[in-house]
Amino acid sequence: MEALKSSDYIVGYTKYVELIKPLFPEKSYIAKGMRQELDRCRIAVRLARDGNRVALISSGDVGIYGMAGALFDYCRIENVPIASPEGVKGEELIIEVIPGVSALNAAASILGAPLGHDFAVISLSDHLTPWQTIKTRLDAAAKADFVIVIFNPRSKSRPYILKKAIHVIEKHLEPTRPVGIVKRATRQGQERIITSISAIPYIEVDMQTIIIIGNRSTYVWNNWMITPRGYEEKYYGVDARETL
């Protein structure tokens, strides 16, 4: 909040700018649509070079599928001088990456504790990553029994990609494996579903949905989804699933 308060300009995706405007109506905003990430970086750098303090915003955490990586890529490729973490040595731009609450953290908290053990995070968006790469990562994560967090599971241009992804995953999972689905986590219209890998309601899933698929130890208790860390076995000598 302090970074936004002290900014001269706020640059971001149109939808995210609309969410922030009511909080800081006096600020100057520049909004760009989907797939215009580099334009946002270009504008933010230009404004900063003119002596302005600029907030380049993302939803969730800026470093997780957010604009931090895009900004560093842009500065490196365009030879924009930026300060290193050790300090400013000249006329470099100062970049501060401010952590936020990722959608995966928000969704997990709404479901219970599904990320209590090792997990892998995979986006199904094939705009920048080829499907074959996504497929390989899904297969490896499922085979290794990671809890799997899925971003960007379904859109108008990719209505069937989630089914393709589940087809890859389910080869390694039993049909009853717990699955948590959270739409619009912590926002207006939030929805929460706990189901199984064989009963995913695909029609309910959109781009604002996070899907969490449990590992073989994940269980559902009192409509909460929990992945145990192993305390019950170490200190009580029982498997949590055997007590359900």
Task: Quickly list its features.
20% strand; 244 residues; elongated; Methyltransferase, Cobalt-precorrin-4 Transmethylase, Domain 2; Cobalt-precorrin-4 Transmethylase, domain 1; alpha/beta
Task: Outline the structure in words.
30% of the residues lie in helices and 20% in strands. It has 244 residues and is α/β, with parallel strands linked by helices. The protein has two domains: 2-77, Cobalt-precorrin-4 Transmethylase, domain 1, CATH 3.40.1010.10; 103-237, 2-Layer Sandwich (Methyltransferase, Cobalt-precorrin-4 Transmethylase, Domain 2). Strand 1, helix 2 (14-20) and strand 2 (28-32) form a beta-alpha-beta unit.
Query: What would you report as the Rg, rounded to the nearest angstrom?
Result: 21 Å
- In which range does the helix fraction lie? 25-40%
**Span of the ends, CA to CA:** 43 Å
Mean pLDDT over the residues:
93
CATH class of the largest domain: Alpha Beta
User: What count of domains describes the coordinates?
Assistant: 2
Shape: elongated
Measured by DSSP, the beta-strand proportion falls in 15-25%
Please give the order of strands in the largest beta sheet: 5-6-9-7-8
- The SS-based structural class is alpha/beta
And the CATH topology of the largest domain? Methyltransferase, Cobalt-precorrin-4 Transmethylase, Domain 2
Largest sheet: 5 strands, mixed
Low-confidence stretches: none
CATH homologous superfamily label of the largest domain: Tetrapyrrole methylase, C-terminal domain
- The assigned CATH architecture of the largest domain is 2-Layer Sandwich
